[in-house]
Design goal:
The chain has about 220 residues and is of the alpha/beta class. The chain has a single domain, classed as TIM Barrel.
Amino acid sequence: MIDLHTHTVFSDGALIPAELARRARVAGYKALAMTDHADASNLEFIITNVRRVTESYSPYAGIDLFCGVEVTHVPPGLIPDTVARARELGADIVVAHGETIAEPVEQGTNLAAIEAGVDVLAHPGLITPEEVRLAVEKGVALEITTRKGHSLTNGHVAALAREYGATLVINNDAHEPGDLVGEEMRRSIALGAGLSVEEYRAAEAASRRIISSLIGGGR
């Protein structure tokens, strides 16, 4: 299992990076991206500090660790600059906090994040067909989430992804130990969203490809 969307104490998570890594490994994960909520106020702080762990702990923790951010509640007009700045600062992966129906995310966030070329659009809510088509063009993966609230629109996301050929990934959006679900629960949530077994396997393979590209790119 691989998770590309998790949180530590550097935003609203319950665990320091080392403990998150350990608990993820025990839960069966082989690779993990730490993607704390970020805007202009804390972008550099998160990347600088989390990278201290992800760059040095992987060989000792028994799990491949990557430093990223989740661009969160940033006004759509500022998302491109925020994404670009995160990459300049050395983020391995950039996730965008999509238009989940569980939070008052500003309309236009999904479109701005896709246009900015984020790696993963998290919990994109009632994403439109036009946005899904653009995600395909831009190579942006759409998230099927195991997290309560955000997961309410998984079926909608899965159906549009199937129709337009978008890449899906499965993430926990983990904030605390209990959020790191096991393989059987990941599979059940994916199938409950309407994915076939083959589509579930393709989503897991997509996460592996993203991780392989990060490793191949020298992180």
